[in-house]
Amino acid sequence: MKTKQKILVVAAAFLVILDEWLKNLALKSFPGESEISGKHFLELAVHKNLGIAFDLPIWLPLVAILTVIVIAGLLFVAIQNKKTQPWIAASALIIICGAVGNLIDRLVYGFTVDYLIIPVTGSAFNLSDLVIISGLILLIVKKQKKT
């Protein structure tokens, strides 16, 4: 394995481990679920997301299966593009990291643990969500520059 690949693997593992650690910390620090309301722009609390993005309720086994399929597809994309379009490969791997973090939650807890709350918008998210969004933004920005 080349040095760049090793660094990428270590960084990916670090993000997943950090996210799981933060989720565990949130569950211990804020037992019980918090309301998505408050006075501050950003609050730390626990929101148990039983669905997918935006709390859309979808049957957990279906979400887990679809997540594994998406991860496999993204891994294929990363492998296919690692030499010709490394930014696509990097974007795919970044998204995979976030997907793995949320998949672990679903398998362990039966929900994703969101710990960053924006009461004004009613949004709740975690590091995995931010990682997924970062990967998507990288993909879109790089794609825009190419065209």
From TrEMBL:
Active-site residues (renumbered): D114, D129
Keyword Protease: yes
Top-level taxon of origin: Bacteria
Top-rank EC class of the record's enzyme: hydrolase
EC number per UniProt: 3.4.23.36
Annotated metabolic or biological route of this protein: Protein modification; lipoprotein biosynthesis (signal peptide cleavage)
Keyword annotations of the record: Aspartyl protease, Cell membrane, Hydrolase, Lipoprotein, Membrane, Protease, Transmembrane, Transmembrane helix
Topology relative to the membrane: Multi-pass membrane protein
UniProt GO MF annotations: aspartic-type endopeptidase activity
Transmembrane residue ranges: 58-79, 86-104, 116-141
Cellular component, GO annotation: plasma membrane
Keyword match Thylakoid: no
Any single biological process term in GO: proteolysis
Compartment list: Cell membrane
Reactions mediated catalytically: Release of signal peptides from bacterial membrane prolipoproteins. Hydrolyzes -Xaa-Yaa-Zaa-|-(S,diacylglyceryl)Cys-, in which Xaa is hydrophobic (preferably Leu), and Yaa (Ala or Ser) and Zaa (Gly or Ala) have small, neutral side chains
InterPro entries documented for this protein: Peptidase_A8
HAMAP family according to UniProt: LspA (MF_00161)
Cited function: This protein specifically catalyzes the removal of signal peptides from prolipoproteins.
PANTHER family: LIPOPROTEIN SIGNAL PEPTIDASE
Family recorded in the similarity comment: Belongs to the peptidase A8 family.
Protein name: Lipoprotein signal peptidase
